[in-house]
Recover the amino acids of this structure.
């Protein structure tokens, strides 16, 4: 398991300096660390967080948005009509609720279709793992800025330490 503090530091080390999003239990440890470092700007909806990320980028920041995958549906319009059209990069750190059909019923459909949705709207994605975290973060940094597009880093439960067991 990756320590939340180490994960946040790694994101900062590769250049991310603006963090926003909507809470989720899988992301809880990351959000707690960002809060302790005064780096987190909470949003009430995922589309709002993605819009704030666009503004942060236009203001000179390298943004990351944290959300659970159900929020991807809320953020799709802003991603497609703003980020993708105007080549505004950001990192989407998305918790993969409903992975392999293991979660509450409301997470199962998005859990099964999330990667297909990302592929359909041409947002590159990778699933973070403890074994490949260095390569995953290197790919993330390189892809976000070289392609100037949103990039999704998918987090399954138990990969990054959270505040709840």
């Amino acid at each position: 398991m990756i320590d939340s503090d180490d994960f946040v530091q790694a994101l900062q080390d590769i250049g991310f300096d603006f963090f926003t999003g909507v809470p989720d239990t899988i992301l809880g440890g990351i959000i707690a660390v960002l809060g302790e470092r005064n780096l987190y700007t909470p949003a009430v909806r995922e589309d709002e967080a993605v819009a704030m990320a666009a503004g942060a980028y236009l203001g000179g920041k390298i943004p990351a948005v944290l959300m659970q995958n159900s929020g991807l549906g809320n953020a799709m319009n802003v991603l497609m009509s703003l980020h993708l059209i105007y080549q505004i990069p950001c990192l989407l750190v998305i918790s993969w609720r409903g992975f392999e059909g293991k979660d509450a019923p409301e997470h199962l459909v998005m859990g099964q279709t999330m990667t297909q949705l990302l592929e359909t709207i041409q947002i590159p994605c990778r699933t973070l793992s403890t074994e490949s975290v260095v390569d995953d973060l290197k790919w993330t940094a390189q892809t976000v800025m070289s392609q100037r597009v949103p990039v999704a880093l998918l987090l399954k439960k138990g990969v990054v330490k959270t505040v709840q067991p």
